[in-house]
């Protein structure tokens, strides 16, 4: 039986039991293992990690752990310059787009409400999500830690919060989406963009009261759903204000 010593920093502690958070702790192992495999056996997905120091030296995920190593593990750095050491995550995606697992349907609708490109189906299979992530360069948002440990995933994030309003705040803050917000430009149902449509072209599709009271309409370019600024719009405006504040 061999032993090494770990210390995880900042939000990586969210994945650890209370007694191992924000402290140096001993970890024992039997067989030869890479530092990536050992970290994920402790419970932290590789998609959350940007820097590993072993005995003070930056290493890659394929480093083979040696007995008595001192291992420090860091998340993505937002305010420190680590350009001189080895980044472990792929470069950030300049055009933030997401694919969400089946547990995050409300979050997907909220992100779409903010104009954030969010792919979601309530019957997504894991392999389907991974393929979409890789082929469309989308970051996976998930409540499933094991999914984010899959080797082929380059961009993924584990959602900490359970309440959807807090989840969308979490995503906006974590990915610095404030500059990308463009409310009411995407369909809440299918994620396609909305386009303004003349009332005269859709009158036959409108409820009588809506036709009498509304003059501004938008149609989804994907599923053709029609939107207008009714009571639902006012409720969403209040929700947006709540999330922004």
Helix-strand layout with pairing:
Elements: E1 2-8, E2 25-29, H1 35-42, E3 51-54, E4 57-58, E5 70-74, E6 98-100, H2 105-113, E7 118-119, H3 126-136, E8 139-142, H4 145-148, E9 156-158, H5 164-174, E10 194-197, H6 208-213, E11 217-220, E12 226-228, H7 231-244
Parallel strand pairs: 1-5, 6-7, 6-8, 8-9
Antiparallel strand pairs: 1-2, 3-4, 3-5, 10-11, 11-12
Helix content: 25-40%
Order of helices and strands: EEHEEEEHEHEHEHEHEEH
Q: How large a portion of the residues is in β-strands, by DSSP E?
A: 15-25%
Provide the gyration radius in Å.
22 Å
Number of domains: 3
Morphology: elongated
Q: Give me the number of helical elements.
A: 7
Compute the separation of the termini in Å. Answer: 52 Å
| Mean of pLDDT | 90
SS class: alpha/beta
Main sheet attributes: strand count, strand direction, barrel closure: 5 strands, mixed
Counted beta strands: 12
Low-confidence stretches: 78-82
Question: How are the strands of the largest sheet arranged?
Answer: 2-1-5-3-4
Task: Describe what is shown at a glance.
The protein has 245 residues and is of the alpha/beta class.
Index terms:
single chain, 245 residues, Ubiquitin-like (UB roll), 5-stranded mixed sheet, 12 strands, elongated
Question: Can you walk through the features of this model?
Answer:
This protein has 3 domains: 2-74, Beta-grasp domain (Ubiquitin-like (UB roll), Roll); 98-180; 194-244, no CATH class. Helices cover 26% and strands 19% of the residues. The chain has helices spanning 35-42, 105-113, 126-136, 145-148, 164-174, 208-213, 231-244, and strands at 2-8, 25-29, 51-54, 57-58, 70-74, 98-100, 118-119, 139-142, 156-158, 194-197, 217-220, 226-228. Strands 2-1-5-3-4 form a 5-stranded mixed beta sheet, with no helix packed on it. It has a 4-stranded parallel beta sheet with strand order 7-6-8-9, with helices on both faces. The chain has a 3-stranded antiparallel beta sheet with strand order 10-11-12, with no helix packed on it. Helix 2 packs across helix 5 (164-174) and helix 5 (164-174) packs across helix 7. The longest helix is centred in the C-terminal third of the chain and has 14 residues, at 231-244. The chain is elongated. 25% of the residues are buried. Mean pLDDT is 90; it is low at 78-82.
């Amino acid at each position: 039986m061999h032993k090494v010593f770990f210390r995880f920093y900042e939000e990586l502690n969210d994945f650890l039991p209370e007694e191992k958070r924000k402290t140096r702790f001993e970890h024992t192992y039997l067989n030869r293992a890479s530092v990536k495999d050992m970290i994920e056996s402790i419970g932290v997905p590789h998609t959350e990690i940007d820097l590993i120091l072993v005995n003070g030296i930056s290493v890659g995920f394929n480093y083979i752990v040696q007995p008595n190593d001192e291992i420090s593990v860091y998340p993505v750095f937002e305010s420190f310059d680590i350009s001189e050491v080895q980044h472990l995550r792929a470069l950030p995606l300049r055009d933030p787009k997401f694919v969400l697992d089946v547990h995050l349907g409300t979050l997907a609708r909220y992100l779409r409400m903010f104009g954030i490109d969010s792919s979601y189906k309530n019957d997504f299979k894991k392999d389907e999500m991974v393929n979409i992530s890789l082929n469309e360069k989308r970051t996976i948002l998930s409540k499933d830690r094991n999914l984010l440990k899959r080797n082929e995933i380059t961009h993924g994030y584990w959602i900490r919060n359970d309440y959807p309003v807090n989840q969308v705040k979490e995503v906006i803050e974590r990915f610095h989406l404030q500059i990308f917000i463009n409310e009411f430009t995407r369909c809440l149902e299918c994620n396609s963009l909305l386009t303004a449509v003349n009332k005269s072209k859709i009158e036959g599709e409108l409820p009588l009261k809506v036709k009498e009271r509304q003059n501004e309409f938008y149609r989804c370019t994907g599923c053709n759903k029609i939107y207008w600024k009714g009571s639902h719009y006012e409720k969403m405006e209040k929700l947006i204000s709540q999330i922004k504040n």
